[in-house]
What we know:
By secondary structure, the chain is α/β, with parallel strands linked by helices. The chain has a single domain, classed as Vaccinia Virus protein VP39 (Rossmann fold, 3-Layer(aba) Sandwich), CATH 3.40.50.150. The protein is 30% helix and 22% strand. It has helices at residues 4-9, 13-29, 104-114, 131-139, 154-163, 190-194, 225-237, and strands at 38-41, 59-62, 73-75, 89-95, 115-126, 166-174, 179-183, 197-204. An eight-stranded mixed beta sheet has the order 3-2-1-4-5-8-6-7, sandwiched between helices. Strand 4, helix 3 and strand 5 (115-126) form a beta-alpha-beta unit. It starts with a helix and ends with a helix. The relative contact order is 0.14.
Amino acid sequence: MKRExxxxxxxxxxxxxxxxxxxQYLKRSITVSCKQHQLQIGxxxxxxxxxxxxxxxxxxxxxxxxxxxxxALKINAKAFSLPIQTESMDLVILPHLLEFDAxxxxxxxxxxxxxxxxxxxxxxxxxxxSVSVRLQSLWDRKFADSWHTHFISxxxxxxxxxxxxxxxLSSAEFGIDSFDIxxxxxxxxxxxxxSMAYGVKALKRQxxxxxxxxxxxxxxxxxxxxxxxxxxxxxxxxx
Length: 239
């Protein structure tokens, strides 16, 4: 599926509302300091709606077409082969990227590689059950080739995060004109069923390996019954 479908969707009335809600969610999700390093994979061209790139001087946008906020640091590269140092990023944002990426698993491995232990990952995906998104995909057929094969469900997203040892911090459901944030895992129900898209924020966990050292055998300080009898017998003989 072509990512141009995303930009066409943002031009529709529902899409404009979704864009506004997602911008608010991304703005709330950027909790790292401006001195830390942030990475956005896949440009949106409305980054100023959720981040001040002049303040966040280490904000980097990777996009194959060189799109994105002109004030941000930009890298023209593929998501599945990031020219970025390992464990150098404090925050990674994937705004509707994986569902358009034919090599999404390699992209996830790259994201995991460049993100620091304790770093945060923010993802935006369309709801596979959204009727409005499906109708829009049928309307824009030229942008929606093989659309059904690219949906990413919440369950699959959670499975991927679990396999990579990520802890879900919060999730969001983008409804008709508002969005709800839940702390912890997704809450499946009516809001999730009718939402147009969903977001998830997760923390990269690092488990330290504690080296095991040989334990010296401790000599027992408790005397055996036989030793006590021998001691009493010796005292009786010399008593």
